[in-house]
Amino acid sequence: MYNQTEIIKDTTDLGPDGELVINMGPQHPATHGVLHLVVTLNGETIKKIEPHLGYIHRSIEKMCERLSYRQFIYVTSRMDYLSSHINNTACALLIEKGMQIEVPERAKVVRTILNELTRIASHELWIGAMAMDLGAFTPFFYAFREREMITDIMEDTCGARLTMNYIVPGGLMYDIHPNFQTKVKAFVKQFKEKVTEYEDLVTGNIIFQSRTKGVGVLTAEDAISYGCSGPVARASGVSCDMRKIAPYDAYDRVEFDEVIETAGDSFARYIVRVKEMNQSIRIIEQLIDNIPEGEFVGKTKNVLKLNKGEFYQRVETARGEFGVFIVSEGGTTPYRIKFRSPGFSNLSVLNHIAKGSKIGDLMATMGTLDLVIPDIDR
Amino acid sequence: MTNEAIKEYITQHAPDATYDETGEWLNIVVESNQLKPLAAVLHGQPMQMDFLFCLTCVDYTTHLTMVYHFTATKDRSMNIVIKTNLDRANPIIETLCDIWRTAEFHEREVFEMFGVTFLHHPDLRNLILEEETAIAVDEKKEGGDEKKGYWPLRKDFEDPINMIKL
Amino acid sequence: MLSLESITKTTQDWLFAKFSPEIALTIECVIVILLCITLFAVLGLVLVLLERKVAARIQIRLGPNRVGPGGIFQTAADTLKLIMKEGLTPDSADKFLFNLAPFIVMMVAMLLLAPIAFAKNFQIWDINIGVLYISAVSSLSVIGILMAGWASNNKYSLLGAMRSGAQIVSYELSAGFAVLTIVVLTGSLRISDIVASQENGWWLFKGHIPVIIAFVLYIIAVTAETNRAPFDLAEAESELTAGFHTEYSGMKFALFFLAEYINIFIVCAIGATLFLGGWMPLHIGHWDGFNHIMDYIPSSVWFMGKTFFLIFVIMWFRWTFPRLRVDQLLNLEWKYLLPISLFNLLLVTVIAIMGWHF
What we know:
The complex is a heterotrimer.
Chain A: E1 19-24, E2 36-42, E3 45-52, H1 60-64, H2 72-76, H3 84-99, H4 105-133, H5 138-158, E4 167-168, E5 171-172, H6 180-202, H7 206-212, H8 220-225, H9 231-234, H10 242-245, H11 266-288, E6 309-316, E7 321-328, E8 336-340, H12 342-348, H13 350-354, H14 359-369, H15 373-377
Antiparallel strand pairs in A: 1-2, 2-3, 4-5, 6-7, 7-8
Helix pairs in contact in A: 3-4, 4-5, 4-11, 4-14, 5-6, 6-11, 11-14
Chain B: H1 3-13, E1 18-20, E2 26-30, H2 32-43, E3 51-59, E4 63-71, E5 79-87, E6 92-94, H3 103-114, E7 117-119, H4 131-140
Chain C: H1 4-18, H2 21-58, H3 74-84, H4 95-111, E1 117-119, E2 122-123, H5 130-138, H6 141-151, H7 155-186, H8 191-196, H9 203-206, H10 208-225, H11 237-240, H12 250-275, H13 288-296, H14 299-318, H15 326-354
Antiparallel strand pairs in C: 1-2
Helix pairs in contact in C: 1-2, 2-3, 2-12, 3-12, 4-6, 4-12, 6-7, 7-10, 7-15, 10-12, 10-15, 12-14
């Protein structure tokens, strides 16, 4: 059905008659948070989308200028709250790089496992939320069943389920829970059995396919030009996996494939994320039996001081390339810190790919961009 | 391309550029009026620095420094940082958003946070902060000797209500 | 045997013996009205609870389980909450139309109850154009929805109402053609005739493939007509927050909500009547023993059982499928369902003329 509906490419032809401006958000079921989109419509057709941000802007970059290098990591959990482990890892890696701190092998492996679990949890939440945007409620509950197991593992490991704050410069805050390995293995087993369930419910569904195929097409050139990263860019055929390009922690010793699709539409973005979950499981399987014994945190000074200079660390969060840029003047706090959030760049492409399509397509497009608003607003 | 080759290539196009290799990546400092031509050169053949992954500004209290991080999707190991210093009282620079579309949002953020004006930017408005806040503060400061904007990420920004002095 | 038929007959005889015909008729009307309203209230409570339990079952959770045993009083508690809530009217709304709309939707739902045969000889009004009446009246509900969307002075409501208008008007056709196939086979528009014609087997079984096609078309069309997922574009909550009833609260919202469920009940009841034999028990050919056992099950149980089975099917759709887009929805109707129903109707006509059905 989808290929019979035209997507109007040039919206200027529609003229000013019959324009309807609606405010989607900040309180709207599909914006998943406080994103405010001013959508100009002509009937059901979208003429323009203008994002208004800042409803959850906390000026984290300014806050971090007052916080020490140990403290500021905790704030980053609150940015992309679905990938808080990965954000923490980025900051820890940057400080380790800046101060040449040796990280024990054990910590590296555990970090990698936790990062991949976080990625799965984030994609699970996304799969449910996106299906809900398209009007299917049930996958949400199926996805949460598995996600619950991950949050339980996280709770055992660090006492928190969402904002972990478990990764510190030099390694980990505590050692892992004694039953960490058993629980993760149980999760991997359950995931492999059950992932097909909601895949059956969503992937093969003809309505789902007709809602997502050919909708919100992002070409590779545009993806690069708009600075897209993560699954959004990979669905357009741009290779941009930081785990491959600049391996950190234990990623250089595990085997996994970078999932790349070429269609660039919403369905490709969906497929990329589903396949990525399987790759994450693959990484976890390789590491879970090989957690080295030893220290879980390296030797660090009590007060961390970064040398004068500029540092940049990139990691791959569930949403894409997350970068931390720190300008240090040699003090105990960063002089200037900039978080390059993947969602910010991914959001900027929304107007480009969604205009000319219908309101229903906007939900599919926005859903598959996987926007997390605190990450965009910072 | 090695750093030496990059330096050699850039020197042909921007003879005044200075280089700093102490960090992880090659840093190139150029004059603000040379940025745009240099950026076009970087984006074109043979460098193809088509991925602008970070664009930000740093307030050094004496001047503002724009920092651009580029990489090439063809060869992601090749990263360069371009910096340009701006006058703090009147920061103006050419926009890059006709070359890298991602610059549009990032420049809007820098505009509202640091007060840097980007020439030829298609839609230079506040993105995150409220539009009214900047205006209200401007009006309040109208009577004073120096007109100050509401630029939160500058170092001399003060907000007695929301910021706690340490 | 105590049956609904005997109760109504006794009551009527007693009333006409006791009072003059005019007064007796008036009293009968009052009784019918009271019964209708009670049925509405009970159906609303039961269907909402059923929906929540079905949804919970599909979504691997428990559903309401706190108020009363197994949560059976949950909807009663919800209704109480809705009654207590303030019914807000937006300042800029067209207040008269805004407040009128839920009642129109409700009234249409109530009117549709008239020709439905709930059990053997238990029917409010056995009108000779029963099926036509249903088709005619059910299309009126779009007026209430458009009114609600327009009067709310809300853009989401307006968009929802426009979608709903387009949708109901389109799918009315398919539903109408599906109904017509049975009319062609039966040769009567009267509900009691249609039910009687199925004494030796339901139309779904003895009408060959065209009736099965018509049945599927009917289920699709009425799912769309009642604005249920996957055709719930009028209230697509992820797109239009709540569609045409965005601005409604309290009891006015509850009326829309109730009307939706009543409409589902009615369309399923009609579906059961037309295709599954209404209150007729399941009879198989010449298995007299089996047929006798089936006859012992009261006709009202048969009717309700079939209706609730169809309701369950429609609920199943809702919790399984994603929503269609508005252009896909209209494409589906005008490019697929309508031509199929037209052709199907021709086929049924041929079958009826040649007498090829059982």
